[in-house]
TrEMBL record:
Gene Ontology MF annotations: glucosamine-1-phosphate N-acetyltransferase activity; UDP-N-acetylglucosamine diphosphorylase activity
Pathway: Nucleotide-sugar biosynthesis; UDP-N-acetyl-alpha-D-glucosamine biosynthesis; UDP-N-acetyl-alpha-D-glucosamine from N-acetyl-alpha-D-glucosamine 1-phosphate: step 1/1; Nucleotide-sugar biosynthesis; UDP-N-acetyl-alpha-D-glucosamine biosynthesis; N-acetyl-alpha-D-glucosamine 1-phosphate from alpha-D-glucosamine 6-phosphate (route II): step 2/2
Annotated catalysed reactions: N-acetyl-alpha-D-glucosamine 1-phosphate + UTP + H(+) = UDP-N-acetyl-alpha-D-glucosamine + diphosphate; alpha-D-glucosamine 1-phosphate + acetyl-CoA = N-acetyl-alpha-D-glucosamine 1-phosphate + CoA + H(+)
Lineage, top ranks: Bacteria, Candidatus Nealsoniibacteriota
Keyword Lyase: no
Keyword Transferase (UniProt): yes
Transmembrane residue ranges: none
Name of the protein described by the UniProt record: Uncharacterized protein
């Protein structure tokens, strides 16, 4: 930032090189002066390879512009673009590689942030109030919170975080950057790998890979999240939105209830407050507050 101390720039924004301009606001530049921010351009149409990251040094008069903008989801971005047209706005480019600096655009980017935080900040510790059966195996960097209970024959392979008051049942496996927040119940015969369970998630036997479950989700026994395509191709969650991932399970909103023995296909997005009936197979995204059932017919002979 010292580079611009002698300039009369009205604002300074921070940018970084990116390989995926379609996810970000991209700077159009004249030297180090920003002349325009182009929102989410196609790679072939991007004015540069510099994305704007969430660090802004703004003059007070910017907020006069902001107050004149109709308020909405993108009111800040609109105000910034308007301000750039009539003011001297400069750019500082981060030298760190994009993969070394976490960002959050889509839900699956939480995995990048989680991995960054675990690598930088996670310290192995077992709180004194935790109750752990004698034959539980704990390897690597694992934090186990207050009043956690872990039952027999369970293995936890870090880095992992187990929040306060959580319960992990018999014969379960928690591994590889899994984050179980406070008051999570993982029943017997469960495998959780590279997944995020927010507060109060309850599940029983099943497999959960590369998945996110919002707070308060209840998941029936025998549910499986498929996290790899049969052809091992990139997982597409919506037309036109690339993930760059070949391993991604389900992303489920808060307070959704899932019946027993459900199968969730790679990359499905299930909204909040949904009800998924037992034995359902979910191939497509489901909006908030939707009841979804796979139809079966009972036959008596």
């Amino acid at each position: 930032m010292s580079k611009f101390e002698g300039l009369k720039a009205k604002a300074v924004l921070v940018g970084q090189k990116t390989k995926t301009p379609e996810f970000f606001g991209i700077a159009r530049l004249d030297g180090d002066k920003i002349t325009e921010i182009v929102e989410k351009p196609k790679s072939s149409e991007a004015p540069s390879d510099i994305k704007i990251v969430g660090v802004y040094l703004l003059s007070k008069d910017f907020f006069q512009t902001y107050e004149k903008i109709e308020q909405g989801m993108y009111s800040f971005e609109t105000a910034l673009s308007t301000y750039i047209k009539t003011n001297d706005v400069r750019l500082v480019v981060l030298q760190e590689k994009e993969e070394d600096v976490p960002f959050l655009k889509y839900p699956w980017h939480l995995f990048i942030i989680e991995k960054y935080l675990f690598n930088k900040l996670l310290k192995p510790k077992i709180e004194r109030s935790a109750q752990i059966a004698k034959n539980v195996v704990i390897e690597g960097k694992v934090y186990i919170g207050e009043n956690v209970r872990i039952f027999e024959n369970t293995t936890i392979k870090g880095p992992c975080y187990i929040g306060a008051n959580s319960i992990i049942g018999t014969n379960s496996l928690i591994r590889d950057y899994s984050n179980l927040e406070n008051n999570v119940l993982v029943g017997a015969f469960v495998e959780v790998v590279r997944s995020i369970f927010q507060q109060g998630v309850n599940t029983h036997s099943g497999y959960f890979g590369d998945s996110i479950f919002g707070a308060g989700c209840l998941v029936g026994a025998g549910t499986i999240t498929a996290n790899v395509r049969v052809d091992r191709g990139e997982i597409i969650v919506k037309p036109g939105i690339t993930t760059g991932l070949k391993s991604l399970g389900a992303i489920v909103g808060k307070n959704t209830k899932i019946g027993i023995s459900c199968s969730l296909m790679p990359g499905v997005l299930i909204g909040s407050d949904c009800l998924i009936g037992p034995n359902s197979v979910v191939f497509e995204n489901i909006e908030d507050k939707t009841a979804f059932y796979t139809e079966f017919k009972g036959i008596k002979k």
